[in-house]
Amino acid sequence: MDDMSGELGELVDAIVAETGLSGVVRVDVDGRAVVQRAYGFAHRAHRVGARVDTLFATASGTKGLTALAVMSLVETGDLTLQTTARSLLGGDLPLIDDRVTVEHLLSHRSGIGDYLDEDDLDDSTEYVLAVPVHRLATTEQFLSVLDGYPTKFEPGTRFSYCNGGFVVLALIAERASGVPFHELVEQRVCRPARMSDTAFLRSDELPGRAAIGYLDDSGDRSNVLHLPVRGNGDGGIYTTAADVHAMWDALFTGRIVSLDTLEHMTRSRSDVAEESRTYGLGFWLDASGGTVMLVGGDAGVGFFSARDRHGRFTATVLCNQTRGCWPTSQRLMRLVATESLP
Fold this sequence. Notes:
alpha+beta; 30% helix; 10 helices; Beta-lactamase
């Protein structure tokens, strides 16, 4: 391990010692992995420690992959950004405004009512789905929880983060392509990016390498009753730190969508002042626009990954705690995105 790896690793260790992260931290600098470290337990009851190749859920980090799958369909002509949701939904979800387009949904500017409205959610561990979680395994099955929410505002008039909008995107993509959404993400995103350890796993049959999500920082109660049994367009894919970094590399070399499409997706559409960030199409951007980010948090899940547009650094934090990885990722970003980097 060279001097940079050792010094940065010690700084990361010190951050984790203070934040109590259970998960994995990886940092690449100039295209080379300089920190890959695991902390805490992937399975507490059996005292199985987290490893750098442990599979973690990503919550809303999945939205970036959904957006890429949709934009790949735009590139092949199966969809356009101006395709209306109604043209593919037909009579389903009648409260969605007929003017809502794919672009409105990708940018969180659709105004549709949300089945999981984070503006009204104080504690993700208190959220209860309207149907038993085992009934939410396919995209079409989500119709039962998406329906019945009135429009919040006129399409295109403002930003409002909308989980349901990305499940609607999954429905649209599935119907436009004729390919089930989970398979579509595999074909259009994971395969070209060589993300061999990334998949929409069922929470009731997790493989041994997958981390269990825990509601509290201590105790063995998991999140299995708090989330759909299988994730969908708005969240829930499992991955590793190595696969996340493979995704960024593939994305910024045009192997998932073209570089012109990537530029379009990472152009700011909304200034989200309360987050000190802006939003494009499926991706967050820092205030300067120089760093592209994916962020996710849910019951028993925390995820953050950021890529400098110029490839100077890529930083990822995955964890299996409700309180998430935000304290760790904030401090990590101050290290890698400033002159503090060793």
